[in-house]
Amino acid sequence: MGNCLNPPVPAVKFIKIYPKMSNKPVIGLLGGGQLGRMLCEAAGPLGITVAILDEENSPAKQANHNPLHITGSFKDPEKIKQLAAKCDVLTVEIEHVETGILEEIATKGVEVPSPDGNSTVLKKVPVHPSWKTIRLIQDKYQQKEYFAKQGIPVAEQVAIAEGSERLSSLRAVGDKFGYPFMLKGAKGSYDGRGNYKIDGPADLETASKQMGDQPLYAEKWVPFEMELAVMVMRTEDDDGNFKAVHPYPVVETIHEDSICTKVFYPPRKVSDGIKKEAQKIASDVIASLWGRGVFAVEMFLTKDDRILVNEVAPRPHNSGHYTIEAVPQMSQYKAQLYSILDMVPSKGICLRPRVPSAIMLNILGGAKGESHDRFVKLAESSSDEFADIYVHLYGKVSKTSRKIGHITATGFSSVDQLANTVSPLIQCMDEIRLERIGSSESAPKPAVSPPPQTPLVAVTMGSDSDMGVMSAGIKILEEFAVPYVVRITSAHRTPHLMMRFAAEMSASTCKVIIAGAGGAAHLPGMLASETHLPVIGVPVKASQLDGLDSLLSIVQMPRGIPCATMGINNSTNAALEAIRILGVAYPEYSERMKAYQAKMADEVYAKDEKLGEIGWARYLEGMQKK
Amino acid sequence: MGNCLNPPVPAVKFIKIYPKMSNKPVIGLLGGGQLGRMLCEAAGPLGITVAILDEENSPAKQANHNPLHITGSFKDPEKIKQLAAKCDVLTVEIEHVETGILEEIATKGVEVPSPDGNSTVLKKVPVHPSWKTIRLIQDKYQQKEYFAKQGIPVAEQVAIAEGSERLSSLRAVGDKFGYPFMLKGAKGSYDGRGNYKIDGPADLETASKQMGDQPLYAEKWVPFEMELAVMVMRTEDDDGNFKAVHPYPVVETIHEDSICTKVFYPPRKVSDGIKKEAQKIASDVIASLWGRGVFAVEMFLTKDDRILVNEVAPRPHNSGHYTIEAVPQMSQYKAQLYSILDMVPSKGICLRPRVPSAIMLNILGGAKGESHDRFVKLAESSSDEFADIYVHLYGKVSKTSRKIGHITATGFSSVDQLANTVSPLIQCMDEIRLERIGSSESAPKPAVSPPPQTPLVAVTMGSDSDMGVMSAGIKILEEFAVPYVVRITSAHRTPHLMMRFAAEMSASTCKVIIAGAGGAAHLPGMLASETHLPVIGVPVKASQLDGLDSLLSIVQMPRGIPCATMGINNSTNAALEAIRILGVAYPEYSERMKAYQAKMADEVYAKDEKLGEIGWARYLEGMQKK
User: Fold this and answer.
1) Which end of chain B has the least Cβ crowding within 10 Å, N or C?
2) Do A380 and B46 make contact, defined as CB atoms within 8 angstroms?
3) In A466-544, alpha helices (H)
4) Which of the two residues, A544 and A78, has the higher pLDDT score?
5) What's the average model confidence in pLDDT over B380-392?
6) Closest residue of B to A580, CA-based?
7) How many domains does chain B fold into?
8) Residue A100: what pLDDT?
């Protein structure tokens, strides 16, 4: 999808008038809050100069000092022009800015001294993302009308009449959509603020009053399963021609009290199909806009598995904070810089996370100025074999519900496992929230209920009569502290259960399946056919043929579908093989295997020594006594 | 090892006189160069205030702005006192500071206004690492004399007499040590500067003149294999009692033109035993010093595998830059903060890298101000499936040989593989060096010669007569783009070669071994006994018993040593099993396996469809024609 409907204003080439340290263009940033601060943290090591327009000592200015900063409000047109005069490109960390002045700067230019110093000339400064995108996004109703026209799925919506007709307009919406429906302010709100849920006709008058004079629209109630978000990087050439969109993976976002508080990567219990669809829709949304940069696309996943776009933020976003540690090679802040300065290499970039899971928890100001301190302290002192915890404070004074920092946890296994690991942090955060909202209840269960320990190995057998043989292997797994699950799934008696089990394990944290079976022993091979995971087969000796029937049934798989076969009844070796395989990914299991092998050797050395000491006859005697 | 010889001066508790944003102690930093800058980059997100004493616009001040900074020289005693008055603890980013004033501040105190504002009181400010450590380290000769007394291995050294006796003293050293030997200035030099190699008696007079009036010492020539370095974190309680040392892994450092230019983690071709010994020696060295912080221990590994301590830096160090990305949960800068502020959790910290390999390359100023630009640009535009590249610029104006930045590459496989991946960067760096040192030669081979592609899978067989069977599996490995190696190692004809092969593969990047054998097929099982890696056995059908002899020889391993056995002659499945196992660690192989399975299914669907179209009789006819 291109930007065919609204041809972009061609951007001028960067004009360099002010001298600077680096050979890279100077970025002018409207707003110096936490998003600007983290942008500066990414810009510093890259040698990119960012000139900030905001108050003295704003969060971004604490982390980036240079002589180009301007003190003042990012809403002040004169200051914006002063900033533009010093910079090669302008960007924003907040969409609530005056787009008229940005349009003027991009299309007409700002006055700068002429090269001879005797007069002034007009310098056009590109604005990224485009002022057109910012203007569209400022009106949430128009934004979604535009997306709907592009064929992007959004919730059904209706503009509410203003003035004396407002109440009748609202009643008409209630008749059309039914109750409940959402009443929203079209402008100036974010993080779900400025929204009103209308439960019935009785709410209409109160809601109308509370929302005040602003333009309103109504949205059909969306019974959603969860909220999703995708960050998308958009690139353009210098002439404003669309180049590409690059989506990050989809995340699950949790909102409490109308504020985003928690982000989970990957989303929990969402199919690969839905994840891909969310990335596709988000890419389409951002391709339909104008300018360079990273954008957040917030979406609802409905209970019937539809995805509806809720809104877009034309900037780095709370839902992308986790990328600082999870996608360190190209965090959303680095992506913003690479996009705006057109630094994306022609062979593309990799936005794949370097960890399997991440959770972001916002640090919000609590009931008292120091309420959040214990949350920060807990995070600072957290260390875990299976997770890393990172604290980000923004240099802001705490106020109730203010975003003053965030914590990111990265995990080496599944997101459920990680949620389990960080549950003390979540519990602490939830307690601070309860204090803040003035509740006297005791803290509820953590929002994320700790799941059972997620397995790395699944052990299954065709019948409980195999349990005696398989238990030796299970004991080995316990000895090596391998998280495992045990199931009975018969290939012949419960073929559907067996197939569902294979699919579940393939999609889980499980890395290896051990399957034992006897006679016409089809279970290991059938599981191998249904999963991409390595399957280890244990031939269990049945009533005939001394187990050779079981062995040949398991080992003689056709070309294409391997099954790693062990000796007859040797579940011990199956478990040891599983541990060797885990060692490929987890060095600690390799270390334990080396120690186990060394111990086995020591035992033989000791026996040999004893044999040398007492001679073979007494040794045999000793053995016979046992 | 404690600090029994020189009991530390008890540190006073933090005294808070100046108000500040965060509830954490304020750190005063002498020096605002790149080490200070990276310290500030770590301090910002943790909400730690760092007050810097250095010139305006020094690298650290660009990345950290607050009202506590002081403009001036970190060697100016008055300015140091001003800084101390504002801070809760002092630290240094360079060891060439006046320790007298630090001792005074730590033991007597600095004048600060009294609580009532009518007079002044003395405030003691802790200095970390201790001024005693800094003082000892400033004299490289005394430093090593001290280490030698602690039982730490150092090169043999002799102090050179001063004044008119210097030349005769030098001649005596030549007689004692033989030639060549190293002549070194005891103070004020670092990065190997101020060193002179004396090749024979003829050099003595010139060397003596060139070294000037400074105190000198001579060091016996150490024919070293490579230079190693270990960063060590040291903790103490508030009373100056030693708590613990925490070593990072050992790295290999490369020096060119007496400047550290490249760092390799892990060191190439160094045994685990040497690595552990280096960590142990480095820990002993740092335990013998005083104060909190991170320290670098630089060492020589001699050609006969001895480790000699060269020198210590009492601060973050060039050899630890790689930890920013490789040990993100606790980089050397974060470790410096955690140590100085006593934030290390009682259950300990994890300093284990989160990637298997990393390479740090310094960006040095070249022949011209912009010489390094192409190196930076190449790094910025590098992206690779098996490596991430990070650029760090320090906000310094380029001067010839000045450290103006560094590049870190992190890899997902071995350090040799990573060196291969980043060889274009190394080539570029070496070219810029040749320009700088004024050479007219064309660029030499990269300092790191690209090794052969390091294997993930090793395929071996007992005899070349097995090659026909094994080749099918090798083709599958090629189809899946798996790096592999193929060897012939007979368990019976070349038992020692077979065992060496197993040991080599265990220590290499290899993750899985596939072994084929026939008859009394001992090779797979014997390899399994000699390695901790998963071994996949392929029974090759020999001249008797239709392969059942081979199968049973491989599959019926004793408990304790598993061998994953495939069907007779089925090397295809062995390769597919190896790829499933690689998928446990490398998701791309899982994806390829899923695609392969989907393709197999599609082929069967297509056949079934064709059968439905043309009927079984014509289908059979078509098959018979093939």
Assistant:
1) C
2) yes
3) 467-479, 495-507, 523-530
4) A78
5) 85
6) B534
7) 5
8) 96
B559 to A573: CB separation less than 8 angstroms, yes or no:
yes
Its pTM stands at 0.72
Q: Indicate the residue among B164, B192, B220 that finishes a domain.
A: B220
What is the distance between the alpha carbons of residues A9 and A617, in angstroms, rounded to a whole number? 98
Stretch A168-180: mean pLDDT, rounded? 94
SS in 3 state form for A416-453? HHHHHHCHHHHHHHHHHHHHHCCCCCCCCCCCCCCCCC
8 Å CB contact of A391 and B329:
no
Determine, for residues A560 and B566 on separate chains, whether the beta-carbon distance falls below 8 Å.
Answer: no
| Residue B539 preceded by cis peptide, ω within 30 | no
Same domain, B359 and B305: yes
Q: Which of B44, B46, B350 sits opposite A63 (nearest CB)?
A: B44
Query: Considering chain A, what percentage of its residues have pLDDT values greater than 70?
Result: 92
The answer to whether residues A93 and A177 belong to one domain is no
Chain A residues 462-491 with a CB less than 8 Å from chain B: 472
pLDDT at A441 over 70: no
Q: What confidence tier does A188 reach under pLDDT thresholds 50, 70, 90?
A: low
Residue A5's pLDDT is 34
Say if residue A450's pLDDT is above 50.
no
Task: Look up residue A156 and give its DSSP letter.
Answer: -
The more confidently predicted of residues A361 and A413 is A361
Task: Give dist(CA A199, CA A612) in Å, integer.
Answer: 88
Q: Is the pLDDT of residue B74 over 90?
A: yes
Whether the CA torsion A135, A141, A142, A146 is positive or negative: it is positive
Q: Following DSSP, what letter does each residue of B502-543 receive, concatenated?
A: HHHHHHSS--EEEEEEESS--HHHHHHHH-SS-EEEEEEP-S
Q: Are residues B99 and B118 in the same domain?
A: yes
The Cα B310–Cα B293 span in angstroms is: 20
Chain A contact for B592 (CB, 8 A cutoff): no
Structure tokens at A136: 């569209």
User: pLDDT tens digit string along B548-580?
Assistant: 989 998 999 989 999 999 999 999 999 999 999
| B299 and B215 in a common domain | no
